[in-house]
Amino acid sequence: MSTDKRDPMDGDYLGLIFGERLTLYAGVFLAVLIGLAVARHYYLDVPFGITDSNAGPVPVDTMVVDTLFE
Description:
Blueprint: H1 20-44
């Protein structure tokens, strides 16, 4: 990290918005969440995404005809 002060209006990259420590914590947090998802998938055989293995064919909805306007 550079210690020299730069003019913020010159268009150069100014650095991380939230600082290095918070960015590191966020990266570690995301890595832990991804690790938990992978471990859950591996150990419990839970599929990634939303899938319903018990879903059968969807029954056809029959429409009841209204006899008021006939």
